[in-house]
Please model this.
Amino acid sequence: MFKFKLGRKQPEENESRRRLQKELFGFNKICDRGFPSHPSAIAYDSQLKLIAIGTHTGEIRIYGQPNFQLSYDLNTSSIRKIIFLNGIARLLVLTSDGYLHLLEINNLNTIHIDHLCTSNEDIGMILKNTQTLCLLRNNLNLLIGLNNGNIYSFNIENFSLNTNPIIPTETIEKIIVENCSGRIIHPGSVQSIVQHPINDDKILIGYKNTLIVHWDLPSNSHDRTYIYKQEVESVCWYNQGRNFATCHSNGSYALWDAKQQLNIVEIEKIPYGPYPCTPMTKIDVKIMRNGDPLIIFSGGLPRSSYSNKHTVSCLCENEHNNERTRHVTFDFTTGIIDFFTIDKLSNDGSRDDPQSLVILLHEEIVMIDLITDSWPSYPLPYLNSIHASPVICTTFACNVNQEFYKKLINYASIQFEDYSDRKWPITGGEITKIEHDSQQKHLLLTGHEDGSVQFWDVTNISMPLIYKLKTSDYFQIEQPINDDTDEETWPPFRKTGIYDPYCDDPRLAIQKLALCTNTNTLIVAGTAGQVLTFQFTAEPTDVNLLTITVNLLDGCESYVWKGHEEMRTKSTFVSSGFIATSFIQLYPPAAVSALALCSDIQWYNQF
Model:
């Protein structure tokens, strides 16, 4: 130790030894599992049934059916926007440093992503100021709306930008003078551009300063203009382009008749008013299978009470039948990046028939089943947020006993009863089929700060969560005060998602895990010196644990423990699955730092 303190250098290793170490310890990343860090954008290919997620670190991940996953790293700055060229396995990526990238999924020898081309450096200043993108259905032109109100056209075939705006701000200002004189002067930034769902020549443009323009591309002129009394945040078409919807900075939305020449709103509503509300940042309207409109929007909550909440609301109203009216405000722990629906268009195109709602958040992704009446969430086969509660410890079980695995899956089915039982909606990609019955199973166990133990199936790349054990059910802990009353709450919040980084009691944190799949035994040791033994049970059981205290300071009566208190048990009900059979409380209740299990003689040690 003294040679380190005196600052002496270690003798340099020779070149052959370093080469040998590199060969023996050459770790390479094989795949990425779980939810990507710092997501920034999402896209969906409705024909190939694939989703792509971009991150602030320049990484792109593409997902299809379970166990289909591709990744690509641009090694550049943050990804701002991703757009699929529908049906041709290509995607456009806009980065914050002012470049457009074209990527392609190829299947020559192996399925991989190729980088085809990058935009010219000269147009970087234009692309840096991009506010919104709209890919036309011909997959040849990309419309780019800027913060200053100009709209440019990017040719995808030549991968070049027309440096002259196709819809300049000056043209819009003339339209304002002719049609909206005295109400606004400058249109503001381009908030949204959407192509007409049937007529490819028409687009709808939403400008920040209360202006909406119905534009004809071949003639490069406007058909109609609309003025609303509040700033525009987003626009969308619905009902085969006969109507469109806008959402605004005061938390309101408006429904318009696209054929109406006058500036008349069909329906305008502040869903969570009349008090001041947060901006409604995005809106999407879909026609359901029964013909009712489904209005989906983010934000718009009462500012004084819920300005810190992150929500996406689904509102389905029927004027003639109140039983068909549904309203749910999905409440999330982290901020919303984007959302979209997966639709199943009717043969005549009159019904969107939305099947699923996909919501990308900063720390997780959530998919809502819109077919089932209760609108439940799907269980995630991949993209799970492993750190929903901070991970404290892990243990890996290789080639687990097949009987143990089957029991675990069987008992886990009860935990997923509140989820949708419909098939996972993302079904793209081709994978080599493997006989799962003969395949060896591998499990990863993670112990978390909230006292939970989660079992992950890491046999394949998907890594689904198959079982969750909560040790907090066995202990008396201080619960947060619940302010909810029996009165109906408004807005109708529904807590959704699993990400919850906060813990009610730090003593619950899991420090060590030991698992034996041959004897179905799990040992869990925690921060407060608690050690629990778990075994499988097939029958619902009331559990009253007897505390066995082990004094590690026997004979050292002068020592005074000044840390946290030991854990106190309580009676609990377990339906089936892992059940606690014994509880040892160490004194002093310090964190367990080591744990060993010898299941052959039913013995374990902890330190």
